[in-house]
Amino acid sequence: MESLPAHQPLLGDDTDEELSDEQIRELFTEAAQRMQAKAASQSSTEAPFKLPKLRPGHIADTYETTEGNITRLDKSKLIDKEQQALASRIKKIDDPLQIRKKRKEEKKASAGAQWFNMPKTELTPELRRDLQLLKMRNVLDPKRHYKKDNSKNDVPEYSQVGTIIEGATEFYSSRLTNKERKQTLLEEIVSQEQANGRFKRKYDDISKAKSSGKKSFYKALKAKRNKGKYDDYARRRKTTVTRTLWPSGLNAHRS
Asked: How many domains does the chain have?
């Protein structure tokens, strides 16, 4: 096997002569020319890269005008036309305190969704009388007992008055006639009192109990006693007269 030389022979000559400066310069020049030719050949074969042209469309007008060394801004172009139209109109300024007060009043106008938006009580004289009767309902019927109400305010904050509509069943037994039907609770209670007279009897019993032991009580008792004495005297008087007349009548009958 042949051994290769350690270095490339120069110009086919095996002499160990040193190169001069001119020869070295020529070698560098040739190498540079080869590199330039190689780069030119590569650039000619490859197509150059070009950026596409942009189409920006209409470019907005500038709002800057320069006059000499002074630059001015056009205020009409700084704000949109819609915003300019809104700014030029008459503005209505709402007081935040009034808005808050209005919202609070609207909130207090009803009891809320949890209570079916029950409206605030519109107090009328008829409604006040009905509410007072409801508070005293334990007096109306002595056989019914209700929970005692200790509230000082007779009028609730939220209330609503409705009308009971009778159903189609039990037409004759569960319905009221037009004469029996009343508009308010007070009229219904008065009509019931005229029918049974329970309140009048209750009033007489209470008056009698309260007047016991007073001057009027003793006057009535004295009058009652005097009336009893007179009746007893009249009864005895009548019996005496009858006994006196009986014998004469008997004699006359015998004769």
From this structure: 2
User: Could you tell me if residue 80 is inside a domain?
Assistant: no
The better pLDDT of the pair 225, 31 is held by 31
Which of these, 186, 181, 192, 182, lies nearest to 132 by C-alpha position?
186
DSSP 8-state assignment for residue 246 = H
* Angle subtended at Cα 128 by Cα 126 and Cα 133, rounded to the nearest 5 degrees: 95
Using CB atoms within 10 Å of the CB of residue 140, give its burial: 0 to 12 exposed, 13 to 18 middle, 19+ buried: middle
pTM (predicted TM-score):
0.41
Q: How far apart are CA 148 and CA 146, in angstroms?
A: 6
pLDDT greater than 60 at residue 45: no
Q: What is the pLDDT of residues 58-116, one digit of tens each?
A: 666 677 778 888 888 777 777 778 887 887 788 778 888 988 888 888 888 888 888 88
- Whether residue 55 is contained in a domain is answered as no
Establish how many alpha carbons lie within 13 A of residue 189's alpha carbon, considering only the half-sphere containing its beta carbon.
Answer: 15
* Domain presence at residue 145: yes
Question: Is 174 within 8 Å of 166 (Cβ atoms)?
Answer: yes
Helix axes 198-210, 185-196, angle to 10 degrees: 80
